[in-house]
Sequence to fold (330 residues):
Amino acid sequence: MKWRDIVIGSVATLVITIVSGIVIYYFTKEPPEVKDELLRYAIERTGSFQSEQHAVGLTTVRLANLGDLAAHNVRIAIAFPSELITDRRINLSSGELGELIVVEDSPARLTLKLPTLLPDEILAVSFLLSSSVPTGPEVSVKSDRSMAKEGSLLRPRTVPESEVQNWLPRLLPLLIGALIGIVGILLLRRTPRRSSLNNHAFVLLHQGVYEKAEELLQAALAKGEDGPHVFANYSLCLAKREDFESAQKYLAAAKFYAKSPHDRAVVLFNEALVALTKGDKSKAHSSLRSAIGLSKDIKSYCNYSKVFQELAAEDPMTQSILQNEGRVGT
Fold:
């Protein structure tokens, strides 16, 4: 298999494409604008889940000042088509919300006033909705000098035309090295997962601290964090409360959400634990084999988890699957 040749050819093609794009960008970009405030907002529908008992929608509105001057008396109004807001959270990237004024706060509308939004500051308003909506809310933002437009929150970057020829030769070797490094990392190892509510809940859950783990997972669900992992881990909490019907619904949501082999392995690992808790050993054995076959990390999860160890102690077949690495189809 000539996978090295394929990788080298792909990297070379990518380098040529990116360098060409850089050259075109620098020679066709617009001249720099006069210094001023520049307000932009973006609407993110971060996820939704609906079952017979639960309906959750998650939406975040972010407002940024991408200009070079501070914006004053910024007023932001966010309106949903009906009374959908069950909870909300407001964050400012600088961390200082003391001067923020809540003008209107209802289940259908939120209006805020911020005396000053500095350059590069971002105001984020996250909503937990009683159901998902097909389109985002209506957003209106204005300051003393301008009105915000919807768009990217990335700050425009400019390079004087006189520096193009000097920077491109220096940039090219760095670009090639960076791309080769990225490809190497993707081939040899997976990037470690960041710290999150779900990860904190996972380590507590598998040490038997169920109530605190469930509290953290519910918070992660409300924030739309960690995709299929939080759904799968929450299913185990439900199973420990013997709510197996709800546990299966969250597992189904996690399976639909999971895309990568590791994500699917985590879902199958939790499916095995739910099945063992329920007493369905045949289902548990099948799911555990598939999980370990998709990701060897599952073995380390099993060795760490007191929940798994207690359940496996009563089932020699589960112990055998773990010792034999659980190859799919064995």
Summary: The chain has three domains: 3-31+165-188, 39-150, 197-323. Residues 326-330 have pLDDT under 50 and may be disordered.
